[in-house]
Specification:
Homooctamer. Its EC number is 4.2.1.24. GO terms for molecular function: porphobilinogen synthase activity; zinc ion binding. With about 325 residues, the chain is an alpha/beta fold. The protein has a single domain (about 25-325), classed as TIM Barrel, CATH 3.20.20.70. The chain is built from 11 helices and 10 strands. α2 (about 60-70) packs across α3 (about 100-110) and α2 runs parallel beside α11 (about 315-325). The chain is globular, with a radius of gyration of 20 Å. It starts with 14 loop residues before the first helix and ends with a helix. It binds ligand PBG. Ligand PBG binds near residues 123, 206 and 274.
């Protein structure tokens, strides 16, 4: 028998053969587009560290949401950038707050064409930039924060959010929001739990996007990048508290965590390709150092392969449109 007898290259010979044996699919429905809306903006404002991403006006948000829905994306995740902040992040739960207004706008524009999600967190709304309220010693007060998350979650459900994304990493946040939704008559509003959200350098550009007021870091509530077992504990707690879906974030530096969570979770698993992951590829491509379009698909396919049913990515509309062309 001639050597080599085994020739894996046979399955790579033509595009048709490669398509036939592809193990991982990427479709528009797998993608969720995170979007920013800025209160009182008269024009969309470019975000320097995220070329191609803007802080939307109410109008441009509606248009971009319709475009994303038209391209077939699975969902939209909205973040608000308020004009005024305070210590308690009051604008988050205010029905007239920027995010709640935007949710109503987008719901009116797209209906149920795609799933509408809201960031349920205080960091965009507080004048100190933390994801929760502070106690008299300046520490993030877990339980006082939970009460505000509950209020905020109900306001978002009332405004038309289908899924809430509590991203603050407070203990008990999923349970308290679930109870509040049920008590307020929103048993069908779901929760996408930020189960394993790590304290990460890759959120840098997002902080510009939401004009974050944070000094210091979020290490007393976001997870330490050294830990995997801890993510599985957070997973068990989120499921116990009623999470409908779970998320790992960031994606690229935590693909092993994603795989471990996907192996045991009995709910859909999402991963968030965060702002810094976006910025790195855009910056390298702008310098001519990598092939942008290939890198975009390669990273998102990798996140799917590692176990994500759903990928949040700032390229969602673009990728969906490209997939639609093929
Ligand atoms: C907090 C939140 C953050 C991101 C999503 N939700 C920032 C943070 O935790 O500092 C980051 C997303 C990204 O970087 O793309 N509400």
């Amino acid at each position: 028998m001639a050597f080599p007898a085994q020739r894996p290259r046979r399955l790579r010979t033509t595009p048709a053969m490669r398509r036939l044996v592809a193990e991982t699919d990427l479709a528009p429905r797998h993608l969720v587009l995170p979007m920013f809306v800025k209160e009182d903006a008269s024009e969309p404002v470019p975000i320097a560290s995220m070329p191609g991403v803007v802080q939307h006006t109410r109008d441009s948000l509606r248009k971009a949401a319709a475009e994303a829905a038209g391209a077939g994306v699975g969902g939209l995740m909205l973040f608000g950038v308020p004009a005024v902040r305070d210590a308690r992040g009051s604008a988050g739960a205010d029905p007239d707050g920027v995010l709640n207004v935007a949710l109503r706008d987008v719901k009116a524009e797209i209906g149920d064409a795609t799933v509408l999600m809201a960031d349920t967190c205080l960091d965009e709304f507080t004048d100190h930039g933390h994801c929760g309220v502070l106690d008299d010693r300046g520490r993030v007060d877990n339980d006082a924060t939970l009460a505000i998350y509950a209020e905020m979650g109900v306001a978002q459900a009332e405004s038309g959010a289908d899924l809430l994304g509590p991203s603050g990493m407070m203990d008990g946040q999923v349970g308290v929001i679930r109870d509040a939704l049920d008590a307020a008559g929103f048993p069908d509003t779901g929760i996408l739990a930020y189960t394993a959200k790590y304290s990460s350098a890759f959120y840098g550009p997002f902080r510009e996007a939401v004009e974050s007021q944070l000094r210091g870091d979020r290490k007393t509530y976001q997870q330490d990048g050294a830990n995997l077992r801890e993510a599985l504990r957070e997973l068990a707690l989120d499921l116990e508290e009623g999470a409908d879906m779970v998320m790992v974030k960031p994606a690229m530096a935590y693909l092993d965590v994603l795989r471990s969570v996907a192996d045991v979770a009995d709910v859909p698993v999402a991963a968030y390709q965060v702002s810094g992951e976006y910025a790195m590829i855009e910056a390298a491509a702008a310098n001519g150092w990598i092939d942008r379009d290939r890198a975009v698909l390669e990273t998102v396919t990798g996140i799917r392969r590692a176990g994500a049913d759903i990928v949040l990515t700032y390229w969602a509309t673009e990728i969906a449109a490209r997939l639609g062309e093929n």
